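User: Need the bound-state model for flavin-adenine dinucleotide:
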Amino acid sequence: MASKTMYKALSDELLALLGPARLVTSGPDLEFYGRDRGQGGWEVRAAMIAFPERVEEIQAIVRACAANDVAIVPSGGRTGLAGAATATRGELVLSLSRMNRVLELDEAARTMRCQAGVTIEQVQTTAAEVGLMYPVDYAAKGSAHIAGSVATNAGGVRVVRYGLTRDWIAGMRVVLASGELLELGGGLVKNNTGYDLRQLFIGSEGTLGVIAEVTVKLCTPPAGTLVALCAVPSDAAVLELFARVRSRGELVISAFECLDHGCIERVLEHRGSDAAPPFAEASPHYVLIEAEVPHSADFEGARERVESELIACLGDAAAAAEIEDAQFASTAAQARALWALREDIGESLHPHHPHKADVALPIGRVAEFTAAWRALVSERMPEIEALCFGHVGDGNLHLNLLCPRGSDHAAFLERCHAYDAELYALVERFAGSVSAEHGIGLLKRDYLHHTRGPEELALMRSIKAAFDPRGLLNPGKIFGG
Ligand SMILES: Cc1cc2nc3c(=O)[nH]c(=O)nc-3n(C[C@H](O)[C@H](O)[C@H](O)COP(=O)(O)OP(=O)(O)OC[C@H]3O[C@@H](n4cnc5c(N)ncnc54)[C@H](O)[C@@H]3O)c2cc1C
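Assistant: Bound-state model below.
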């Protein structure tokens, strides 16, 4: 633990390195940069915030912190939902937000090298300017950094077609706890030379090193997409619909997202009194389906073929009572409006201080699990509104409990904490994961054992010790202690 003298020595050294505009040691910015979007009620205690602009500055900051025994919280867009970018122990917060330049776009290799703080949206728009696509996509893309998304192995809405962030990382440069710089590829498609250390940093939540640069892979975007929203009578029907759509060989599905009726109600409430529901009759669940239009000399013909295939498939689903109603977006604006119903859920629930759980289940057991989860909530907290949405095509559910209006948030969180223990035990019984895509951070470290066995946990701790023997990188995250 650093003494006052050590903090003073560190801030003097960093002031000389960065100047007063790039080192914050007091004021509201300590709280602002000291936390992410995790809803754990943790007290934020950041000692200072440093804003490097070059890799060499990251190295100098890491070395100065090590010399003065001050721990570091690497910080990206602070959109993380597990408290992994929250400083609670007097750490220095190392914000990568000023390292926001795209460094190189190689169209032949289809790769893009970026500084850590380039946002996902910047990556997507830069790729689109040369007709390419970075397919990892989620609602926080305007703020989330590429390095933050690597550190959390972010998923998002198109995993069913394109996979996770892990599948799109060609290389990276990482500053180690010692201050040394590790170069982890980027230019090679094939490189079978022993352990792939790059993979260790993906999902490491800032505990193994500071990612300074990332090289991502890019791909050809589809010629177009078609979007439909379906009203679905039950959890079981959601899965039946998924199996039906997936087995229709001619359809290439790029998203299959589910949302409860309560999610739609909250989105409409957030938009204001004249916002209209998508269907005249409410259904318990909705599914948003996106299908890709392949490249063809005759785009309109290809589009019409995908559209008739999707309509036929949903007609069969209606005949089998898997859906009650459906809407197709026939213009880009209508498609955006349907997507907005899904993407606005996070912001719309925010005023209700939701307790969130992001879990993964074997796809075939999603409906059975959801029924067990609903029974658990109604038994333990019958007055609490429980809402489920998520990337059902990946078995990934976001389970939300809303804090009742006017009730004490701290008391609500305490009750949720007791429920968490039962929830994650339930997830284990269904052979699921306590975190599908948001990571562990501070929020789930007490529940990691439900998904990882003792041997795995011991190996994970040894990996942490090998990279960061003094425990200076994001202490307390993932494992606690
Ligand atoms: C509205 C909303 C929707 C979301 N939807 C999804 C979704 O669909 N799918 C999904 O997977 N996630 C989703 N998320 C959460 C997602 O994990 C984060 O949005 C994002 O991946 C984290 O990036 P960030 O730059 O904000 O990182 P931060 O929150 O700043 O940090 C997250 C972790 O990464 C570490 N980190 C950050 N930068 C670095 C670095 N340079 N080097 C080393 N470690 C670093 C931090 O220490 C921390 O452990 C959503 C979040 C919000 C708010």
